[in-house]
Amino acid sequence: MGPHDEVEEWIARGMLFGEQERYDEALAAYTRAADLAPDLAGVWVLKAAALSELGRHDDALVAYDRALALDADEAPVWLFKADTLAMLERHEEALAACDHALALDPTDGEAWQVRGAVLTELERYEEAVKAYDRALALDPDEGDALVGKADALVELDRYEEAIAIYDRTLALDPQDEAAWSGKGDALTELDRYDEALAAYDQALEIDPESDQALIGRADTLASLDRDGEALESYELALARDGESAWAWMGKGSVLTALERPHEALTAFNRALKLEPESERGWFGKAVALAALGRDGEALAASKHALKLLPDDSDLWTLRADAHLRLNQTEDALRAYTRAATLDADNAWAWGGKTVCLYALGRGRSAEAQKAEKRARALGLTVQVEQTPSGGE
Fold first, then answer.
1. Residue 2 CB burial class (10 angstroms; 0-12, 13-18, ≥19)
2. Inter-CA distances, 282 with 8, 46, 299, Å
3. DSSP code string of 62-74
């Protein structure tokens, strides 16, 4: 057997092992072939694919780069590299690799689809829609491109358009779990909760372990104040993926609603370990701490949350409540005033401001009268005692 025949034999073995999902053995075979023919670009591509199947994406990237160093004009290899970079969450580099593939072959619908997915990860949703449109111009019935476009439209708050595309996808393939899950998300955003639950249930019938459907269903149940059912759904999602920060935050929120603040705090702490700069996580933690009477810690958590959400009226109100319980009336007044400025319909902020002004002896001031009047107009009756001191 000559050297060329030996290389071909190792490649054939690798392909057979790959078909049998014996990727370690496939990798060993391709490695042997690459040792024998290090200048054969195709061997490096096969080796990279085996490495990707084994989850060794960094090593796969090295192999793809080796292949491209030997032949830089292979559009599919650039696209494989883009996929690998996306797996590594190196999205800007993935976009550059995808663009290189498209420069070589602008009629590659899959490359346009990958470009749309990478742009979605970069939160460049308008560009993502355009990329998916290019893919769909080449193949109007490509399900992944349809779902990708619809997902991007959801991020752009174009929910009705998204639902129409999900429905078109489902007409082509009623078993498309991603389309059912995406439709559920869009329906939830439109407050069409019963329809959303039906969509998530369809998704879970197809794939009982769909993270998107499990969490989406839980979020929708929470929006309907069906907190016990929502908690069960979040726990199912977390049993599937214990590293989902969103599921931990959702669980924390429903535990707070169920008046289980100790458990809620644990859930929010887990979420913040996964996403340390999550505004929802810090806000939820502050709420749980306040419910536990740990107002000093609640103030610290709300301070962190305000760095992320400086214009959230509810957050300023929570902070003001904590100050007031700690008898820090001037600080509470400033926080209630800020909350009412951000949201003129925040009845609790107007009521809290009224209470603070009375406590500071300024109950007869025009400012206090305005705050009390506004609170009452919003349906909140403020119970205060007139103090004898002035301060108007």
1. exposed
2. 58, 46, 11
3. HHHHHHHHH-TT-
Contact 37, 43 (CB under 8 A): yes
Look at residue 5 in the predicted model and tell me its pLDDT.
75
- Our CA angle for 321, 322, 325, nearest 5°, is 85
Would you say 84 and 61 are in contact if contact means Cβ atoms under 8 Å apart? Answer: yes
Whether the predicted pLDDT of 383 surpasses 90 = no
- What average pLDDT score do residues 338-346 get? 97
The two tokens of residue 391 are 């301060």
Per-residue pLDDT at 392: 41
Rounded Cα gap, residues 247 and 222, in angstroms? 12
Provide DSSP, 284-327.
Answer: HHHHHHHHTT-HHHHHHHHHHHHHH-TT-HHHHHHHHHHHHHTT
For 360, list phi and psi in degrees, rounded to 5: -90, 10
φ/ψ of residue 174, rounded to 5: -65, -10
The confidence score (pLDDT) of residue 388 equals 47
pTM score of the predicted model: 0.82
List the end-to-end C-alpha distance of the chain, in Å, as a whole number.
103
Domain edges within the chain: 311-392
Per-residue pLDDT tens digits for 347-377: 999 999 999 999 999 999 999 999 999 999 9
CA 336 – CA 355 distance, rounded (Å) = 10
Asked if 333 contacts 351 with a C-beta cutoff of 8 angstroms, the reply is no
Confidence (pLDDT) at 27: 93
How many other CB atoms are there within 10 angstroms of residue 311's CB atom? 11
CATH code of domain 311-392 = 1.25.40.10
How high is the pLDDT of residue 386? 58
Q: Residue 267: CB partners within 8 Å, gap ≥ 6?
A: 248, 249, 251, 252, 255
